[in-house]
């Protein structure tokens, strides 16, 4: 039995203008534990009325200016306190995240540390931020005045939820905006920790507001609200497209990090052992519920049979266990609805590829949302398991002969978020990476993030970039101010001469 964290609430509320409140309608929704499928908590279910209140509170805080007009150094101090508090609660956060989302506890601990680092990174970045000045000698001086925009609407997914929330909260708050956070309904528990963390760190009332609810109600109201000029969304591509359409009439700033079907390309001259380590981890870590998962492994035919056999053997040996067990490598998927979707894709895959590992529920887990790590080989590029995002511990392996064929296969989906290339040929590595249609490429590397680099995708994988200065650019407006140092040199109209 999965160990229940101590002091779990039986009900969590919205957080608006510094106060915990239930939804105006009184509605709630149930939250389940993925390992058992048992309801353990209810959550206030916000709708348009609650979003209106949250946005009004955020707007008041922004206009009042104690945060929006604060010095960058003062905001930085608060963000460092936030990071310190998160780090001090690493064990507690990991237990809660594992319980709520089904993540293996060891991987949940890593997400808590990354959340703290996100705040620390932007605390440092805003102090070091510099803006351009341009001088026309003897005539003009021009400079850029960077300002927060207002209320940012942040809509976050259910995979690694606390870390994903920090990825948006840190730059939005660091740059002086107020925020309304709408977390995923499947995993609300860790989001309920933010109010206490922010209060303890000294963030002014109203700068952070939290509204739980479904995407079709609370999320939709946030996107359509006229006083929310910025929307940052992470989720699936179809929802992102709908969101973009709804935001377009108000010309909102959008950052959309959407789905992926990322290729991992392994050439015959690669370090095979290192490539196996990375590709197995890349698709099965976080229960396969990651947007950048290398869920299509493309292998050069010279090494294909050996690589596939070794990959399948690794998959069979992965430890599937309860989320709270430190030995667990793959645990329970987030929700029964998502479990059913993944299982449907596995059944589809049985007619589209050669099943080498997994293929269903592990024998020792008759209950809960557990899926055995599943490997399909010899998958054709028109197969659904090759083309469509499954978002679970399922991989499609496909052979290729030439560099040209590998590139065609890599680019042969509607997605373009991440890609991974394994080769010892430096010239090939750089040329191949540049030709891949994806927002990010890792060469001879697993998915290791440098927070200074842009994060985002192309095609159906998203719109815009966040990360480093790109996040600062998204959450601020850049005002250009021109100063004349000599005569204005304006043509004289209306003088009658």
Summarize it.
The chain contains 15 helices and 21 strands. The protein is of the alpha/beta class and 497 residues long.
Could you explain how this protein is built, in words?
This protein has 15 helices and 21 strands. By secondary structure, the chain is an alpha/beta fold. A seven-stranded mixed beta sheet has the order 15-16-17-14-13-18-19, with helices on both faces. Strands 10-9-8-11-12-20 form a six-stranded mixed beta sheet, sandwiched between helices. It has a three-stranded mixed beta sheet with strand order 1-5-4, with helices on one face. Helix content is 37%, strand content 20%. The protein starts with 10 loop residues before the first strand and ends in a 13-residue tail after the last strand. Helix 2 packs antiparallel against helix 4, helix 3 crosses helix 4 and helix 4 packs parallel to helix 5. The chain is globular.
């Amino acid at each position: 039995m999965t160990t229940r964290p101590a002091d779990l609430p039986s009900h969590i509320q919205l957080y608006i203008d510094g106060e915990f409140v239930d939804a105006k309608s009184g509605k709630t929704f149930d939250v389940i534990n993925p390992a058992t499928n048992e309801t353990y908590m209810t959550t206030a279910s916000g709708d348009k009325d609650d979003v209106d209140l949250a946005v009004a509170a955020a707007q008041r805080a922004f206009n009042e200016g104690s945060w929006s007009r604060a010095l960058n150094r003062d905001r930085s101090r608060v963000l460092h306190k936030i990071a310190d508090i998160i780090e001090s609660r690493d064990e507690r956060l990991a237990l809660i995240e594992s319980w709520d989302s089904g993540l293996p506890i060891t991987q949940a601990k890593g997400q808590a540390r990354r959340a703290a680092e996100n705040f620390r990174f932007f605390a440092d970045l805003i102090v070091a931020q510099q803006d351009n000045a341009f001088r026309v000698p003897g005539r003009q001086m021009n400079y850029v005045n960077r300002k927060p925009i207002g209320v940012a609407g942040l809509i976050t997914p259910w995979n690694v939820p606390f870390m994903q929330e920090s990825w948006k909260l840190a730059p939005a708050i660091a740059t002086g905006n107020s925020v309304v956070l709408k977390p995923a309904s499947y995993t609300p528990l860790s989001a309920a920790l933010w109010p206490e963390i922010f209060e303890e760190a000294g963030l002014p009332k109203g700068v952070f507001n939290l509204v739980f609810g479904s995407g079709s109600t609370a999320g939709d109201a946030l996107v359509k609200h006229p006083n929310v000029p910025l929307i940052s969304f992470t989720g699936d591509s179809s929802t992102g497209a709908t969101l973009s359409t709804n935001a377009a009439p108000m010309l909102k700033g959008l950052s959309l990090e959407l789905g992926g079907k990322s290729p991992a390309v392994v050439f015959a001259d690669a370090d095979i052992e290192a490539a196996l380590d990375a590709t197995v981890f890349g698709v099965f870590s976080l229960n396969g519920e990651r947007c950048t998962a290398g869920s299509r492994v493309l292998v050069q035919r010279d090494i294909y049979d050996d690589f596939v056999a070794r990959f399948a053997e690794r998959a069979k040996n992965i430890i599937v266990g309860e989320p709270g067990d430190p030995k667990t490598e793959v645990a329970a998927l987030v929700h029964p609805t998502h479990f059913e979707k993944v299982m449907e894709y596995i059944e589809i895959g049985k007619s589209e590829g050669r099943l080498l590992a997994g293929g269903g529920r592990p024998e020792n887990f008759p209950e809960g949302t557990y899926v055995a790590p599943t490997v399909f080989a010899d998958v054709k590029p028109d197969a659904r398991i090759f083309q469509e995002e499954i978002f679970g511990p399922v991989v499609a392996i496909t052979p290729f002969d030439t560099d040209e064929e590998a590139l065609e296969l890599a680019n042969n989906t509607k997605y373009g978020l991440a890609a991974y290339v394994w080769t010892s040929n430096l010239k090939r590595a750089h040329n191949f990476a540049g030709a891949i249609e994806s927002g990010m490429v890792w060469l001879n590397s697993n998915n290791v993030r440098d927070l200074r680099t842009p994060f985002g995708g192309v095609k159906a994988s998203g719109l815009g970039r966040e990360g480093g200065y790109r996040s600062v650019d998204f959450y601020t407006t850049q005002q250009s101010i021109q100063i004349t140092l000599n005569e204005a040199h304006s043509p004289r109209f209306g003088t009658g001469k």
